[in-house]
Amino acid sequence: MVLAQDCLSELRDLLGPLGCKEGADLPSRNRTDWSFLPPASPLAVLRPATTGEVVHIMRHCHANQITVTPQGGLTGLCGGARPTDGGVALSLERLTGIEDLDPVGMTMTVRAGTPLETVQKAAAEVGLFFPLDLGARGSCTIGGNLSTNAGGNRVIRYGMTRDLVLGIEAVLADGTLLPMLNRMIKNNAGYDLKQLFLGSEGTLGVITRVVLRLYPQPGCTSAALCIVPDYETVLSVLGAARKRLGPLLSAFEVMWADYWHQATDRAGIRAPVAMGKGSHAILIEMQGLDSEIDGTRFDSLLEHLLEEGLVLNGAVAQSLSDITAFWATRDAAAEFANPAVIGPHISFDVGLPVARMDEFARQAKAELLDQLGCHSVFYGHVGDGNLHVVAWKPDADPQPLDAASGIVYRIVGEMDGTVSAEHGIGTLKKPYLPLSRSPSEIALMRQVKQALDPQGLLNPTKIFD
């Protein structure tokens, strides 16, 4: 076996100065992700520009037992892209570009380092639509989206990322190339191996290219903000929206009153409607193909809500700028880190049975305050059972991450929820995985990991030890 530096010497020759960064040239951004974990000290950051270079890197690192941590846009919140000390970070930031766009087959083939927003815009230019959408769309990459099985704002209509993928190309820990670039919706020729890699957080292979499924560009978008008196009414409105809009319902976002006040009173987001004595604000969005036909469905829903007395107050978007303003209230959490709003805080991404989400919010809020002195606010994609929690202890440095996590995830487990709805496990959620997965499930995950990466070199220490 050659020393790590000798292995890097070969990779330096392969990748050149743009593709191999080390020592003083090692970018600080590649030392960690948005999890706020302390920066690591990798041996180097490798930046391949082709699949062939990825294959070469993996073969060399496998032969010399050097750990490899794949990286996309580094927008993850769980430490999944934080490299190991003495290993290498494999950044796909140069592996970018749209290779093929098929308007007839409604597919797009892209390289894994391509930003999500680039994919969205390319689809729109030919009158098509890629529905995955996250707040970090300009920074996150499509490979990272696949590796975490990202959710986002439109899961209620289009599903998670895995539902938008037809095929992938992946490189295993030993450098084996898997060319699985299927372009067909129906393909039952054996195991659907791509599913092993979607949501695996880079622990089973490095995704290098992907075939995405596209949809027709929406011809019209309607949105409304509704203030309701209690969570039971939230559920009634959700039922009515599902029944009257069917597959046209593209988003059903709910903001608890405490979140709403932080967003509009502290973060400075203009409130399109007054909360008053309401308990929740609901953002309902519908995407249709024809405003004259589908728009009447949305109007009918709003009339029903008013006739049934379900809404205390509300606002209906009259323009795209209104829709943007409505979403600004939902996306205000991005401003909470500002010391003038909340400052340092702890974020949680959990999944729960929809009927129990308010029960969870009330119990978690009480326990966080009583036991830790932590304040908390709640919001999320209630239509698909995904709740976000922002908790903070005023003037605490550091924030009580472990203690707060213990409270939040214990309650999630008691309510048969999941400790991760859309951000993965990474390192931060490893201790809590048994709350959402049985011992037999975790054992099978370990067997899959052992089969594909027997030396444990690919993104080690993530998901489980």
UniProtKB/TrEMBL annotation:
Transmembrane segments: none annotated. It holds the Pfam family FAD_binding_4. Its cofactor is FAD. Keywords: FAD, Flavoprotein, Oxidoreductase. It comes from the Bacteria. GO terms for biological process: respiratory electron transport chain. InterPro entries: FAD-bd_oxidored_4_C, FAD-bd_PCMH, FAD-bd_PCMH-like_sf, FAD-bd_PCMH_sub1, FAD-bd_PCMH_sub2, FAD-linked_Oxase-like_C, FAD-oxidored/transferase_4, Oxid_FAD_bind_N. Gene3D superfamilies: 3.30.465.10, 3.30.70.2190, 3.30.70.2740, Uridine Diphospho-n-acetylenolpyruvylglucosamine Reductase, domain 2, Vanillyl-alcohol Oxidase, Chain A, domain 4. GO terms for molecular function: FAD binding; oxidoreductase activity. Signal peptide: none annotated. Residues 38-217 form the FAD-binding PCMH-type domain. Belongs to the FAD-binding oxidoreductase/transferase type 4 family. This is Glycolate oxidase subunit GlcE. It comes from Antarctobacter heliothermus.
